[in-house]
Amino acid sequence: MNDERHRQPVTVDVNVLVRAVAQRDRTEFWSWPSPPPASSNPAADCIGIFNDAEEFSLFLSPHILRNVKRVLTDPDDGYGWPEPDADDYVAVLTEIAEASGGEVLDPTVTVTDCVADYEDNRILELVLASGLLLLVSSDMSHLVPMSPWRGTPIITPAQFVGRVDGMRRSPRR
After folding, report:
1. If we measure between CA atoms, which residue out of 45, 48, 90, 51 comes closest to residue 72?
2. Tens of pLDDT along 31-58?
3. How far apart are CA 18 and CA 12, in angstroms?
4. What is the DSSP-derived secondary structure letter of residue 54?
5. What stretches of 58-156 show up as alpha helix (H) in DSSP?
6. Under a CB-based contact definition with an 8 Å cutoff, are residues 53 and 100 in contact?
7. Strands 8-12 and 134-136: what pairing?
8. Cα–chain-centroid distance for residue 6?
9. pTM of the model
10. Which end of the chain, C or N, has fewer beta carbons within 10 A?
11. What residues form DSSP beta bridges with 136?
């Protein structure tokens, strides 16, 4: 494991955290794919990269974790998970954040830059409050087009995984 001081602070949008488990068995939170090679689920690969705790530290907020649980347990969103399963997943995400040198942080700043989606401002607040260097999102309608937001790149899970995969394959590593 690399020294925590050399890990880059990153966060992920709710949609990435949901997609990471959308096609997985809800009881398999202890095993995550990690490039190389990249899997067919870039969102799950992102969680695997954070779980490795080598290059990146994961930062989350109570807002992100609440919304992951809300989306996974809402039958109208197509998931309909039982609450205990969603609680287990939120606990695993919290553990991954802490083990990677990140944390669950409740931002005290207010951002209103994303007029089209109030919820996206809560993600941007975490970026601003913690000085994150990167935001990973699948929100092609609102967040990704804002990149770079106040100097912070916003990239898709596939872009993030592709860069990490290439970096890890580099002979200079």
Report:
1. 90
2. 788 888 888 889 999 999 999 999 999 9
3. 10
4. S
5. 62-73, 83-99, 118-130
6. yes
7. parallel
8. 19
9. 0.90
10. C
11. 12, 155
169's enclosing H/E stretch is helix 157-169
In this structure, what token pair is assigned to residue 86?
Answer: 């969603």
Which amino acid is present at 128?
L
Q: Residue 123 gets which letter from DSSP?
A: H
Contact 124, 147 (CB under 8 A): no
Q: In the structure encoding, which two tokens stand for residue 5, read together? A: 């001081």
CA–CA gap between residue 46 and residue 92 (Å, rounded): 14
Is residue 78 over pLDDT 90?
no
Percent of the chain residues past pLDDT 70, beyond the cut: 91
59: left (phi over 0), alpha (psi -120 to 50) or beta: beta
Distance CA 84, CA 93 (A): 14
pLDDT at site 1: 44
Quickly count: other Cβ atoms within 10 Å of residue 83's Cβ.
10
Structure tokens at 112: 């209103």
Contact 152, 130 (CB under 8 A): no
Q: Whole-number mean pLDDT of the chain?
A: 89
